[in-house]
Amino acid sequence: MFNQTTLEQLEADVGKEVLAQLFDVFKKEATKLTEQLMACTTLDEECIRLSHSLKSCARSYGADQLAALAQTLESLAKENDSSFFNERALLVEIHQATMAALPKR
Questions:
Q1: Residue 104 domain-assigned (yes or no)
Q2: C-beta of residue 14 within 8 angstroms of C-beta of residue 22
Q3: With contact defined as beta carbons under 8 Å apart, do 86 and 24 qualify?
Q4: Could you tell me if residue 21 is inside a domain?
Q5: Which of the listed residues 24, 53, 69, 70 has the most CB atoms within 10 Å of its CB?
Q6: Where are the beta strands (DSSP E) in 33-87?
Q7: pTM of the model
């Protein structure tokens, strides 16, 4: 679920204690963005912004599967493609799996 190379680099950059705090921030931010994306009813700039933010957040912490889905959602929203809503259906499951896989540091 998490990219080991990214996790190792984060730990080297900030140390174990700060990394644990950062993962608390990640959990809150990713959860908030997921909830907001699930609440989107129309494809607009807000959907694009939320998808982009979730993609960036997930990539920063090595949550590659969540980042990939967010990237897909961002692209679909930019194209005003209604399949965004079909793809978004995967978001809750992937978010939950990502949160369950958070490294215990």
A1: yes
A2: yes
A3: no
A4: no
A5: 70
A6: none
A7: 0.94
